[in-house]
Design brief:
By secondary structure, this protein is mainly alpha-helical. It has two helices and no strands. Helix content is 51%, strand content 0%. The relative contact order is 0.17.
């Protein structure tokens, strides 16, 4: 999406509607990735089977950009 040294969440509260929406989308995505990773970690701590690295990567949430303006 053209972001370089700053992650999109840095634009939360931006007056630019696209940047503000990208920030909200990124934050939701980041949270979903962290929740998934923590759940896998907890599975390991409970002694449950955990996904292989390939399975883990395949199950990572995919970001959904929702801004529909110009």
């Amino acid at each position: 999406r053209g972001y370089t040294k700053r992650e999109p969440s840095d634009y939360a509260g931006s007056s630019n509607p696209r940047w503000a929406q990208d920030a909200a989308d990124w934050i939701a995505h980041r949270d979903a990735v962290m929740e998934y990773g923590l759940e896998v970690e907890n599975m390991a701590k409970r002694g449950e089977p955990v996904p292989t690295l390939d399975e883990f990567k395949a199950m990572l949430p995919i970001i959904q950009w929702t801004f529909n303006g110009d």
